[in-house]
Amino acid sequence: MPRKLGRASAHRRADMRAMVTYLLENGRIQTTITRAKEVAPVAEKMVTIGKKNTLAARRQAMTYIKKEDVVKKLFDDIAPKYTERNGGYTRIMRIGPRRGDAAEMAIVELVD
User: Fold this and answer.
1) Integer-rounded Cα radius of gyration of the chain
2) Which of 37, 60, 89, 109 is the most buried (most CB within 10 A)?
3) Do residues 93 and 105 touch, judged by C-beta distance below 8 A?
4) Phi, psi of 96 (to 5 degrees)
5) Of 1, 2, 42, nearest to 18 (Cα)?
6) Strands of 28-32's sheet, edge to edge?
7) Within-domain flag for 16
8) d(C-alpha 27, C-alpha 105), whole Å
9) What band does 1 get if pLDDT is binned at 50, 70 and 90?
């Protein structure tokens, strides 16, 4: 059962899409623990799709990641780094509470 994150389903889907895109674009994002736990598996699936490196896989990635340059980076730069690795492409590091509302924060990053 996926976490609802206090949003309507369409908003939640758009949020996930944006966070995964930003993570693949920049290599790391800072977010709350619950969001991090939702983003990491989706990002891992995108890297796994990127490792296939076929036209069908590229089109499948484009259905989720709407930025063409990020998909190109995923297939050309990110996925080839993980050819020898079977999963575990992301890392979640806790960084303590946020100042405003004391929500537990975390950094999600792609493993080197």
Assistant:
1) 14
2) 89
3) no
4) 95, 180
5) 42
6) 28-32, 104-110, 90-97
7) yes
8) 17
9) low
Q: Which domain holds residue 34?
A: 9-110
DSSP state of 106: E
Structure tokens of 87? 């999963």
- Which helix (DSSP H) or strand (DSSP E) does residue 110 occupy? strand 104-110
Report d(CA 112, CA 16) in Å as an integer.
Answer: 23
Which residues make Cβ contacts (< 8 Å) with residue 21, sequence separation at least 6? 65, 66, 67, 70
Task: Tell whether pTM > 0.90.
Answer: yes
Q: Is residue 2 part of a domain?
A: no
61, 49 contact by CB (below 8 A): yes
Q: What is the mean pLDDT of the chain?
A: 95
Check if the beta carbon of residue 86 is closer than 8 Å to that of residue 93. no
Residue 1 lies in a domain: no
pLDDT at residue 3 in the model: 82
Give, in order, the Cα–Cα distances in Å from 24 to each of 6, 11, 29, 90: 24, 20, 9, 10
CATH number at residue 93: 3.90.1030.10
